[in-house]
Amino acid sequence: xxxxxxxxxxxxxxGVHNVCRLLSRRAHGFYARDAGVAHRKNLGLxxxxxxxxxxxxxxxxxxxxxxxxxYERGRxxxxxxxxxxxxxxxxxxxxYQKSKCxxxxxxxxxxxxxxxxxxxxxxxxxxxxxLIVLTVQNWLLRLSADSGEVLEKVYLxxxxxxFFRYLCWDTPQEVMxxxxxxxxxxxxxxxxxxxxxxxxxxxxxxxxxxxxxxxLEINKKIFGNSVTDVAVSNGILIVMYSMGLVRLYNFKxxxxxxxxxxxxxxxEFNWNGQxxxxxxxxxxxxxxxxxxxTPPLLFEASSLENAFQIGGFPWHxxxxxxxxKHKGVFHICSLKDNTLAKNGVQDMKCCxxxxxxxxxxxxxxxxxxxxxxxxxxVLKLKEVKNHADQMEIAEDFMIVANRENCVNNSVTVTAxxxxxxxxxxxxxxxxxxxxxxxxxxEDELDLxxxxxxxxxxxxxxxHLDFHCNEHGSLLKSIPLKESWDVTxxxxxxxxxxxxxHIEQKPNRRFSCHVYQMVCDTARDxx
Length: 526
Known about the structure:
By secondary structure, the chain is mainly beta.
């Protein structure tokens, strides 16, 4: 016992080195000086306050614009990112307003870049949030998120490509991909019999500090004639084909295997007869990754409209069988051996204008969210009893739309006693019935949010509901005061104590409505 006591004392003296014990102690709040503990406690308090009955969400600000409105982490961007408004203050305020840019400087896409924790960075400006934007003239700019000042600029397109249009993350906040639009020859060139073999260009960057990894082509001669699109995610190159085929390749291995020569931004180079500076006008970036042979195939699947997702534990994927009659039917299969999970065919049998949709839960729990017009199913993977090597899909919980007052009788009797039969039945997403339009997850508060809409006369009325992410129980409902037109696109952001609704209106008009949490019980009208 003395020896054991001494061992425990030594363990306390040198710190806990067992990972399971460390996590358990941290969850119980043993490390009160840890900043993460204080942050988690604060978020827990915020969640409790927000879900109280007396807490309201007040519409504090509304604005309109003739151009699309974007939102990123407490910042509202308008006028093609020329105007930035902070939504964190008690009333939204302008952070910066630039003069109207020329069409040649129009921004095509943007990503918010945030400082990584625990790393030494070369410039003080790197420790603050910044916005990476891609202009129509192929300039990649890094702007200060608070002032709009240009911190870095890279010219992308040398002689190889003139149409870079898309930004996306390979690894979030670490590796960024800049993708070109699909290369298409002019009609005259096609009639003359000229062949276009290069379909897309991909430029790869590491961020903070911004550094050039390489540029590569997606070529018909390597990947086939029927390629329609490409994407990169988590180190995987995803190639999509016109017949619904999806193929996966190891993107990191491609970069390593086919890299001809590494280059750095600002470096002088002499490449294929060109002399210039990497990332400077007019030379841009060299295409220094040449895929000369088909890379090893990791995985392929055939799915309707190339819809393909990977997630869960152990790894599974979701596809729709590649026939139009199977639209709305989802198969959940093991990535290891392609076997269909038990109860792995998910079909809500919806009769609706808009299809149901399915995806892996973003909370990294491995669960699956399946959303229909009037039903949200949260599903989980679990082992089949007495068959440890086989998985089944089980229901975790359901959220059902409120359609208590909806009566859809096919036969009605008039006051005079005449029987009237309807020749049609209502769709599952009929506007006069409450219908789910948006489902999202707030990771910091661990809440599942849903937006449901009901058409009342000429107006659509929507409410945002917060559900417990673990059990699905309703914790809070917030009515949105503005009318909701189901024929136009909508985005709803729930960010801690802020709710933001961006909507498109007729004639390409856009509106932004900001709601903030208020706890004044004396103001019931708010």
